[in-house]
Design brief:
The protein is mainly alpha-helical. The protein has 7 helices and no strands. Helix 6 packs across helix 7. The protein is elongated, with a radius of gyration of 18 Å.
């Protein structure tokens, strides 16, 4: 990469990080309100704790992206891996919170996309929807994407060379910022679906 390309890439990095943090800033008040309303309705202390933890971890992931000084300047596969693992934890905690509240939680290492499926199946059952109807979900693939990218980054030794950053990784600040934006939308959608089910 030439000096000019490197300088341009650094500028675009900052813009991508800004986009992700801006989406969080525009969503944080709504998400905090959703969490507060859910906590008021939950009976199980562990469910409340898990729900609040999911929110805390999501905020921590966004802040780590926004204020991680070295990552602002250049790509770091370890930071990428850590933040992807944080997103896995966000979804795991929110779904496990629901399962604990419903007394449907079974110990073990659950895949977040399996938990996602269980969550929406449970909501459908609680709403008594007919067999052919489903609870609306615009972002179901996000949990699969988060899990798969995280797993590839953690477990696969022969990582491809990223064509933009020239680092060996399954992603970069551009894919990470995009995944974080989609995760924020999906997280709020999950909370709202849960609230709507409680309030029916």
């Amino acid at each position: 990469m030439s000096d000019l390309e490197e300088s341009f890439e650094r500028t675009i990095r900052l813009q991508m990080i800004f986009q992700a943090t801006h989406v969080w800033n525009l969503s944080e008040k709504r998400i905090a309100s959703q969490i507060e309303r859910l906590v008021e309705n939950l009976q199980e202390a562990k469910a409340k704790t898990h729900l609040q933890e999911s929110h805390r971890v999501l905020k921590k992931v966004v802040e780590a992206l926004a204020y991680g000084e070295p990552y602002l300047k250049e790509e770091d596969p370890i930071t990428f891996k850590d933040l992807m693992e944080g997103l896995v934890e966000v979804f795991k905690c929110v779904f496990e919170s629901f399962m604990k509240e419903e007394h449907a939680f079974t110990p073990g290492d659950h895949k977040i996309d399996d938990l996602n499926r269980q969550f929406y199946t449970s909501l459908k059952r609680k709403r008594r929807l007919p067999h052919c109807e489903f609870v609306s979900q615009a972002y179901p693939p996000i949990t699969v994407l988060v899990r798969m990218v995280r797993n590839c980054q953690v477990h696969q030794r022969d990582k491809p060379i990223d064509h933009i950053t020239r680092k060996r990784s399954f992603g970069n600040v551009y894919t990470l910022s995009s995944v974080i934006i989609l995760s924020i939308y999906a997280y709020s959608e999950i909370l709202q679906a849960w609230l709507d089910t409680i309030e029916i």
